[in-house]
Write a structure and sequence with these properties.
Length: 179
């Protein structure tokens, strides 16, 4: 006689869909991520980053404070954006990765290659130091009105050093705890 055993597997927190928002701010394209970036969401993010660069310019600030997870597919999108922005005369600056995302950047060595700072204001200050050729496709129009509340915040250039080196968040993952 056989007996059946029922196994109940309790799943953890449900997968968070990826939310992507973008806006012009301080001469940059600020793209904010919330949720999880993985194989299921990487292609959509790639498209949204291209669109954001076309609409707002190639100085990209990628706000990772709300990003709860990334896999190698997500890292690939970030690397692709970095390369594309640099080829167009812009840059990519990462903001406030959470410890789990920081670990992925650290394991891959990207924390040494990319500029990583603690706040959007620091990222904008670092990004605007990057010269962007005038008249390039994707450059934001000078007479384009910023969103309500967007604009210069008085950042004085205390952001991350130039040349792809990491800023304060790179030295202490605890500073990149996100929200």
């Amino acid at each position: 006689m056989s007996t059946a055993t029922t196994v109940s597997i309790e799943m953890g927190t449900p997968v968070q869909p990826l939310e992507v928002t973008s806006r012009p701010y301080g001469g940059c394209t600020v793209v904010r991520l919330r949720g999880e970036l993985d194989i299921a969401t990487a292609d959509e993010l790639r498209l949204r980053l291209r669109r954001a660069r076309r609409e707002h310019g190639d100085r990209v600030v990628l706000d990772l404070a709300g990003l709860e997870f990334t896999d190698s597919h997500g890292l690939s999108v970030i690397i692709g954006c970095y390369r594309s922005a640099a080829e167009a005369g812009g840059c990519l600056v990462l903001v406030a990765p959470r410890p789990i995302v920081w670990r992925a950047l650290e394991i891959t060595g990207l924390h040494r290659r990319l500029t990583i700072v603690d706040t959007v204001e620091e990222a904008v200050a670092a990004a605007v130091k990057t010269p962007q050729p005038a008249g390039e496709a994707g450059a934001a129009s000078e007479d384009e009105a910023p969103e309500e509340g967007a604009g210069e915040t008085g950042a004085t250039g205390s952001g991350a050093p130039e040349g792809g080196s990491a800023g304060p968040a790179a030295e202490r993952p605890a500073a990149a705890t996100g929200t």
